[in-house]
Amino acid sequence: EAILAALSTSVVQTHISGTNNIWIVKPAGKSRGRGIRLFNDPEALLQYTRGEEAQGLEARWVAQKYVERPLIIWHRKFDIRQWVLVTDWNPLCVWFYSTCYLRFAASDYDPNNLDIFQHLTNNSVAKYYEGPLKEDEITANGNMWSIPRFQTWLEETYGRADLWQCLLQPAMKHVVICTLKCAQDLIAARKGSCQLYGYDFLIDDQLRVWLLEINSSPTLESSTPITTELCADVQEDILRVTVD
Question: Structure pTM?
């Protein structure tokens, strides 16, 4: 235990790495979960990116060590989609949307099973799930939750009503600021323009926030009851910010 504790202080991803050696690989230029696979054998991963199944998907790939110890709700993995609007790069002007939503995988999480429906939370993937459907609140809402519902669950589970406002959301804002500052000098700024980004965050089982990816063209499709409401609101608020 002392060795693991010492390792965790120098390698912050020690805890989330788990013991199954799972890696996730995706085509660099694709979206909506296309071409994503999970492997626990690096050689099999390389064979996939070079094989016939992957031909035509992408010449470049992104491979990441998988977070094997995510926070689980009712046996399911989830991530958080957060909208961020940049209206100026120099000086940097960022708008962090006031709310966001949770996206759940279609099936129960099991790190010993690499089936994508247990691991990928994209609605464009989950909608193709043909296994037994759960009769629960998550499924009824299109495998999504609002933040108020998540806050209720956090309070019921951890006995604190302030975890979202005082711990999780501030960590997400910190990541947004750091990532945009990293790219600030690399972007050709154009006055009078803006860009909406979709940040995907994951929370591990120790309530630490991790950035999964940043989407340059986040979907605003009204695909579920939650996104029907939120996507309309965020589009209206973008106009308020940029036009009003």
Answer: 0.91
